[in-house]
Amino acid sequence: MTEKEIYDKILEINKNFDFITSCIKFYKQEFENLEDELIYCSKYSWLPDHKEKVKQILYKMKEVVRRTELEEKHFDVLEKQLDDIQDNL
After folding, report:
1. What is the reported pLDDT for 35?
2. Is the dihedral of CA 33, 36, 39, 43 positive or negative?
3. 27: which residues sit within 8 A by CB, 6+ positions away?
4. Residue 11: band (very low, low, confident or very high) from pLDDT cuts 50, 70, 90
């Protein structure tokens, strides 16, 4: 690899890293919002519609966790790309 190719590859990795971290931050905020909603709804879970609402919130929270885990797997790809650059140096 030439120096320019290495530089371009590192810029691309940085951009991807920033994107992944921003996605994870978004999911973290989404999860916190769902937590707040869950706390509120669980206080009134004796109401018929709130019990269903709690179930929906729990489902959404599981989905946020699943998506966050998927995003975190992208870090492995970035790590491999960095290893490839290091091996070429």
Report:
1. 95
2. negative
3. 64, 67, 68, 71
4. very high
Torsion of CA 36, 38, 44, 46, to 10 degrees: -170
79-84 LR contacts (CB < 8 Å, sep 24+): 81/9, 81/13, 82/13
Number of H helices, E strands in the chain: 2, 0
The pTM (predicted TM-score) of the whole model is: 0.79
**38-57 residues labelled b (16+ CB within 10 A) or e (exposed):** beebeeeeeeeeeeebbeeb
pLDDT attached to residue 67 = 95
User: Which residue shows structure tokens 């004796």?
Assistant: 46
Give me Rg for the CA atoms of the chain: 20
